[in-house]
Amino acid sequence: MIIDWTPLADLIETRDRFLVTTHVRPDGDALGSEVGMAGLLRQKGKDVRVVNVSHTPPRYDFLDPDGSLFEHFGTAVHPADLADREVALILDLSAWSQLGDMAEYVRSFPGPRVVIDHHLSQDDLGALFIKDTAAEATGILVMSAVAALGAALTREVATGLLTAIAMDTGWFRHTNTRPGTLRAVAELIEAGADIAAIYRDLFERNTLGRLRLMGETLSGLQTDMGGRVAYATISRADLERTGAIPQDSEDMVDFTVSLRGVEVGMLFIEQARGGVKVSLRSRNGLDCAQLAATLGGGGHRAAAGATLPGEMAENVDRVLRAVRQALDPATVAAQG
Ligand SMILES: [Mn+2]
């Protein structure tokens, strides 16, 4: 898709102080896209603050080596500190729920809001949407903005964007990895992104807590529907016992679909503030975004999620019923 970046170019032309933000529990695409966008704006001489509602997971600290880029909303930064911001750029999300505790602030943001995103689900955020749901990552969109607006792929920007694209394609393994994905990556490497170093930073700096949590999660893997469905749960007690932190569960849902014969995988994670987050992955074309939408969540076709009120057991039952129904409506109906 050819994106018209004129509206963003116009804002850059006429405004000086930008706020960049992303979703709760930010992933590589969210944070890497922020690095890219901040770099682009700074090259244009803009004053940029990158303020997120969640703390940066330690896994991604290499994107902000001196700790000066990502600021935390609610502790380090309060709405009053952002009173001078003229434009809000919201990356990698299109739903109010994804803004968490920043939703209220964004709702009352007086200046223009721009959403740059690739998710299917969409709330009316009162924003200008620059959206391509066919894009493998928001990082690809930011890369197109860098080119369209005549900015340079500095080593820093290239590192952010490669991280973004790598994480949203499962390190170039998922079906959203296309020839153009790898051409973009080639360009980022030429611009100075060190792909081997990024891999080490992302995948070879596990903590003992994360590895132990991984072991426990795998030990507790369950199957359903004769092995077509696999799922696991992570409780608060699991985190405490293993010494893991909530962000350590990132990517662990991928184990569920790594089991031979599995079409739908799920990971249920008990949330600190109550409720359960479920991550859904499909390997048979089942539309996870649609399924997640029925649970009040959203996402992509092959990967989506929702946060559900209530206890673990009841939510596992509820989501399992929905998945059985989606996979095999006739059988489920016959069983009543
Ligand atoms: Mn993304």
Give a topology summary.
Layout (H helix, E strand, L loop, with lengths): L5 H9 L2 E5 L6 H16 L3 E6 L17 E3 L14 E5 L11 H5 L5 E5 L10 E4 L6 H11 L6 H14 L10 H12 L4 H9 L4 H12 L2 E3 L4 E6 L1 H7 L10 H4 L7 E7 L5 E7 L5 H7 L3 E2 L3 E6 L3 H16 L1 H7 L1
Parallel strand pairs: 1-2, 1-4, 2-3, 4-5, 5-6, 8-9
Antiparallel strand pairs: 7-8, 9-10, 10-12, 11-12
Helix pairs in contact: 2-4, 2-5, 4-5, 5-6, 12-13
Bound molecules: manganese (II) ion.
Could you describe the 3D structure shown?
The protein has 13 helices and twelve strands. It is of the alpha/beta class and about 325 residues long. The chain has two domains: about 5-205, inorganic pyrophosphatase (n-terminal core) (Alpha-Beta Complex); about 210-335, Diaminopimelate Epimerase, Chain A, domain 1 (Roll), CATH 3.10.310.30. The protein has a six-stranded parallel β-sheet. Strands 7-8-9-10-12-11 form a six-stranded mixed β-sheet, sandwiched between helices. The mean pLDDT is about 95. It binds manganese (II) ion. Manganese (II) ion binds near residues 29, 92, 137, 138 and 168. Manganese (II) ion binds near residues 29, 92, 118, 138 and 168.
